[in-house]
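Why does residue order matter? Because the sequence determines the fold. Keep that principle in mind as you read this record.
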Amino acid sequence: MAAINAGDWRFLLPGVLMTPFAIYRLMRMFEFQKKGLGAHQLSFWEKHFFVSSVVIALAHGLFVMQAMLTTDHVFIISLAVGLCLAQMVGVVARNFASASLVNAQALAMGVPSAIGWWMHPDPWFGVTAIFFVPFFLSAKSLAAGIRNLLDGQREATATIRRVAIRDSLTGVYNRKGFYERLSEERQRPERGHYIAALVDIDHFKAVNDSYGHSIGDALLIQIALRLSEIENETLTVARLAGDEFAILARSHHPQQSMERICKSVTDCFIDLFNCRGIYLPVTASIGAASAETLDADNSVIICADLAVYEAKEKGGAGFKIYHDDMQDRFERREILRRDLRQAVAANELFLVYQPIGNLRSGAISSCESLMRWRHPSLGLISPDEFIPIAESADIVGELTRWAIETAVSECIQWPNEIGVSVNLSARDLRRRDIVNTVFDVLIRHGLAPQRLILEMTETALAEEPLMTRQVLHGLRSLGVQIALDDFGTGYANFSYLIDYDFDKLKLDRSLINQISDGKRARTLIAGLARTAHDLGLTIVAEGVETRKQLEPLRELGSIDRIQGWLLSRPIAGSDAIRAYLADPFFDPNTISESDHDEEADRSVHA
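Structure:
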């Protein structure tokens, strides 16, 4: 436009200078946007961009100087000055991130422009140029302001992102951050197998219940700190849930690395945790799995979770490494979980009854009802397998209601002096409606409350102690009897005998099995029995199977009842149990293991 209006083709020279650099810079920009650049290419690319930008800015400055020195044409001068000022605004908008580039471009445009203004024949042009000096100087300040503003926004964004992906309590990654790291790892080149280890703290709820959440939080912080320090090859440590942590690692030797990581995690729990002056012994259940690639379903995490489940099934305080059999067992559990919901309606559940006899009089005093499940395709399922599934699926309450209803309706057909016992789970003791259920069943069937015995284990009592106490108080008010089952396993906590008003104490078969082996077991059982009698409890010995076990129990003189195969195996069917109870006595002096072989053929294995 300047060349046409002035008729002077020398005005094309700044454009000629600018054009190859502009074309080169555009080509590199398109290349950058399309392909991206590696770290080693960025420095080279930035130097070329810097030089091209400065040359283009210099061409604009030379255009202003040329307009000032070679023509008085108002349009051309206005065109040159306006274009230069507009370009300077563009420099600030585009290149504010680089202070050196903004300064270099401002000088490249400003110096030739200033020379042209001051050398113009009309001195007023030089005076007017003074007013443009602040504009060029402010470019640097404006660019710095934008840069600082965006730096602040970037830092704020980074802070928000850290908060979003970091656990606020422990500082390690949270679930969102952990799965983002999985996604990032999925995009990286292969560097060996991926290893995922899940760490589930054993009995963490008991810590919160006993010491409060502040101690529980302090414990989690220390666990996270120890886990973060265990392995150089550890890529990520995360807290996925309240008491569940995860570790993600890479290794070319996955089996050895999984075992090493699991052992290192186990070592983290050897020393006591000092939580605000309270020293806590803590264990964890650990599961690990490996995979060559990370798929979108994160199956390596699912496999590690299956391994954790197996570790917990074995009692916790250890680790398991995933293998294919775990998947088979998981699929079986899922089938059972699905079908168990329909088992009651489909009449697949049934009760068997194991008599409990008075060791002194030989009279049968009650029968314990034991739940069984005959699956249509998998056959007989042990309660040890399906009751935990029912608890995890939150349908154990339905099974308990069915068991109470069935046992009471059967017991009403027995002699009046014989009762029936039903087992309650931990979840039953956390439901107030269990009291209403028992009351409703007793009223409808007309069973005397004292003929119903409700059994529970120490483990069930340990969960939600306040709620458990309220539920047991409600059950006691109905007049039913309460029995503490499996005493002698776990911690055999005597405080339960003080805190709860039990009627019966059932000694676990693990104690009874040892009574024929030596004096120590007899002394212990005798002490337990004396203590229980002093508290007004009836003592029942479970798992009595041989005369070698029976005789020491009789000699102690403090065992009230026995239960086990020596007396009777569990009896299936209403007709069979009624026939057995038609003559509800046994002779403690002559009873032997062979007395019930024929009966065992029609019974269901305990």
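The chain has 24 helices and 17 strands.
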